[in-house]
Amino acid sequence: MKVLVRGGCGFLGSHVCEYYKKLGEEVVSFDNLTKHEFMRTGYDVEGARLYNWNLLKGLGVSLVRGDIRNKEELFKAAKDCDYIVHTAAQPAMTIAIENPELDITTNVIGTFNVLEVARRYDIPMVNCSTIHIYGNKINETLVEGETRFIRSPPTINEEHPILQGTITPLHASKRSAEIYVQSYADTYGLEIATFRLTGMYGPRQFGGEDHGWVANFAIRTLLRMPIKIFGTDKQVRDILYVSDAVEAFDAFYKRRKPGLYNIGGGIKNI
């Protein structure tokens, strides 16, 4: 099997590449290596962009430096591939607000281009979405307990109302991408699973204040630097270990059950 990973040098994408390479599969990473240029960390991340590139190179992953907004580059990289995992995105709400053009071209046009590749070659695809789809009201019902906030009901399923409360360009772009994915699955019969991911953590998460908050909090604590909190004190997430997400993607490929899936770490990981 030949797997194409969009955003393969990112946090999640690099783990997808590593997972399939260790299974003996042929893996192609497609990444423009620009994410860290937009992250305001307050500490040195000079080597972050190339860290995963060099790691994957050592594992024998085929590396393509390209942009998902460039359709021709995508088509070339996808030749003879059997499966696409689309992790490339602009994930930060702060950056979406500051640069909505970057946000929409990456998250909507970029996803459209990936869908065109899947349609041309008729191959299954994983699309990575976000818990942000549900809007900023999902935590309004939280009650403060002795050690944690408590939700009633305790979980949110895929039928939960979306885009509740005020929305930002990030909400708009990620939901637009989901709709395009659903339309391509329905219209062209493509096998696609969209995963709405909660906050993740794990090795190689070069987090900044805009995205990757688990690593960012840990790094800034170790460096004795202040931590900036956006929003309210009720921004609660059930954090998900990165390899669990990768295994969920693989389960979709093996079982071929297209659809929309929430994926998080569960109540014990809040």
How would you describe the shape?
globular
Order of helices and strands: EHEHEHEHHEEEHEEHEHE
Strands of the widest sheet, in order across it, are 3-2-1-4-5-8-11
* Helix coverage percent: 25-40%
Q: What's the story with the biggest beta sheet? A: 7 strands, parallel
Q: What structural class is derived from the secondary structure elements? A: alpha/beta
- The strand count comes to 11
CATH topology: Rossmann fold
Name the poorly predicted regions: none
Mean of all residue-level pLDDT scores = 88
Q: Could you state the CATH homologous superfamily?
A: NAD(P)-binding Rossmann-like Domain
Q: In DSSP terms, counting alpha (H) and pi (I) runs of 4 or more, how many helices?
A: 8
Radius of gyration: 18 Å
Query: Terminal Cα separation, in Å?
Result: 36 Å
Class, according to the CATH hierarchy? Answer: Alpha Beta
Tally the structural domains: 1
CATH architecture: 3-Layer(aba) Sandwich
Strand content: 15-25%
SSE map:
Layout: E1 2-6, H1 11-22, E2 26-31, H2 48-59, E3 62-65, H3 71-77, E4 83-86, H4 93-98, H5 100-121, E5 125-130, E6 143-144, E7 149-150, H6 169-188, E8 192-197, E9 200-201, H7 213-222, E10 240-241, H8 242-255, E11 259-263
Parallel strand pairs: 1-2, 1-4, 2-3, 4-5, 5-8, 8-11, 9-10
Antiparallel strand pairs: 6-7
Helix pairs in contact: 1-2, 1-8, 5-6
Report on the structure:
This protein is of the alpha/beta class and 270 residues long. The protein has a single domain (2-269), classed as NAD(P)-binding Rossmann-like Domain (Rossmann fold). Helices cover 38% and strands 16% of the residues. The protein has 8 helices and 11 strands. The strands form 3 sheets. Strands 3-2-1-4-5-8-11 form a 7-stranded parallel beta sheet, with helices on both faces. A two-stranded antiparallel sheet has the order 6-7. It has a two-stranded parallel ribbon with strand order 9-10. Strand 2 (26-31), helix 2 and strand 3 (62-65) form a beta-alpha-beta unit. Helix 5 runs parallel beside helix 6 (169-188).
